[in-house]
Amino acid sequence: MSPTNDNVLLSVRNLRKNFGGLKVTQDVTLDMRAGIVTTLVGPNGAGKTTLFNLITGHLHPSSGDILWMGESIVGMPHWKIARKGISRTFQDLRLFDQMTVEENVLTVMEPGSWLWQPGGKAKMAQRRERVHEILVRTRLVDKADVRAIDLAYAERKFLSLARIMATDSQMWLLDEPASGLDRRSYDHFLGLLRDEVEKGVTVCIIEHNLDIVVGISDRIAFLDQGRLLADGDPQSVLKDPHLAAIYFGEQSA
Ligand SMILES: Nc1ncnc2c1ncn2[C@@H]1O[C@H](COP(=O)(O)OP(=O)(O)O)[C@@H](O)[C@H]1O
Ligand SMILES: [Mg+2]
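Above: inputs. Below: predicted complex with magnesium ion.
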């Protein structure tokens, strides 16, 4: 399948999610076009992670629809949605702590064939080669045999990114991938992300750091209390005094 005529990969239509009486997603409509970096911003508790969970099938909406290249994916299990080409990272990373760095990346790659099948050994060698290349780019190659639990904080964030790089997914949903990174690490992160976008990955990223937001976004979607308050080019959204009051009011609270 390919994007729809107007290049929309993912289309969120009148999406609602209630947890009991709590309205966490309120009538959100949002299109994500191929090749465009959309940044989701908004105060804590705005419903950003919930929106990711709804898209990826980790939660099911109360109503509304989600279309992937024109096909509804609502109700599909999360692994099936991932196979269609939508991958995500988690705010709490969810690495396999007791596995090595290399194993963490290998586990997300689909084996073309298993070791005991014809060509299996060659396929495994190819996968290892690809993992190596990704570990070089994420600067984790010296840590390939280290268990994930023994990595430093920034290294864990990059391992999470390495895992999504290995999926070959068309769409990435990144949940605060740069939070807590030092300046040098986030420059590295931004460079990697730009390269991937250039290669054709479509990204939706949840981010608080305004340098990163400005540095990477083609478009900003602003969520507050489950509602989409704005959706447009970065300059106009960031300049809106009403949104700034909500955003910075919450940040300084
Ligand atoms: N599984 C859940 N059950 C009940 N409430 C939830 C659940 N997940 C999230 N929420 C609530 O939904 C709101 C939005 O959460 P979340 O999407 O994590 O916000 P954000 O990522 O923007 O900080 C919060 O009030 C949170 O407490
Ligand atoms: Mg969140």
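Strands lie at 8-19, 22-33, 37-41, 63-68, 71-72, 86-88, 171-175, 202-206, 219-224, 227-232.
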